Amino acid sequence: MTLIKFEPLREFKSFSNRVQKLFGDFPSLSLDMNLNYHPKIDISEDEKNIFVEAEVPGIPKENLKLVLQDNILTLSGEKKQEEVKKEKNYHRTERSYGSFSRSFSLPVEVDQNKVDAKFEDGILKVTLEKTAPKVNKEKLIDIKQFIWLTGAVYT
């Protein structure tokens, strides 16, 4: 007998994909709930490093901020809208604009002092060096016994 994995939302996902395809060609009717700009991010790793690549076309380096705190990497910035020229007749405007902030919990601990970020051709490439895994030493914890009648604690 073949076992089939139970996925109660499988049919809903299929329906959602079909509806998204139907309305995808009509941006004003699009079901995309995130109306502001948000960059696409890839996170990968090898033995020594974690690599983050963000597509941020049209955003100058000065409008980007990258912060690493408590092993959470946050990329924030703003894609400003170009001035709309009244003498032009626009047939279609699909580009997104606005402020964004994206935070990612990194899969392993990294060294905050060994982070390299490069920005070229609208791609932000961040390399974070992994730290050696911390070895937790075993600690024996003394268990005390409490006697209710006297209120005394004995070891």
What is the topology?
Blueprint: H1 10-23, E1 40-45, E2 49-55, E3 64-69, E4 72-79, E5 98-105, E6 110-120, E7 123-130, E8 145-146, E9 153-154
Antiparallel strand pairs: 1-2, 2-7, 3-4, 4-5, 6-7, 8-9
Please outline what is shown here:
By secondary structure, the protein is mainly beta. Helix content is 9%, strand content 37%.
Describe what you observe in this structure.
With 155 residues, this protein is mainly beta. 9% of the residues lie in helices and 37% in strands. Strands 1-2-7-6 form a four-stranded antiparallel β-sheet, with no helix packed on it. Strands 3-4-5 form a three-stranded antiparallel β-sheet, with no helix packed on it. Strands 8-9 form a two-stranded antiparallel ribbon. A hairpin with a 2-residue loop joins strand 6 and strand 7. The model is unreliable at 27-34 (pLDDT under 50).
Task: List the defining traits of the structure above.
single chain; mainly beta; four-stranded antiparallel β-sheet; three-stranded antiparallel β-sheet; 1 helix; 9 strands
Runs with pLDDT <50, length 5+?
27-34
What kind of sheet is the major sheet? 4 strands, antiparallel
Strands of the widest sheet, in order across it, are: 1-2-7-6
The succession of helices and strands, N to C, reads HEEEEEEEEE
| Apparent shape | extended
Structural class: mainly beta
Number of helices: 1
What is the number of E strands? Answer: 9
Radius of gyration, in angstroms, nearest whole number: 26 Å
Helix content: under 10%
Termini gap: 58 Å
- pLDDT averaged over residues: 81
| Strand residues, percent | 35-45%
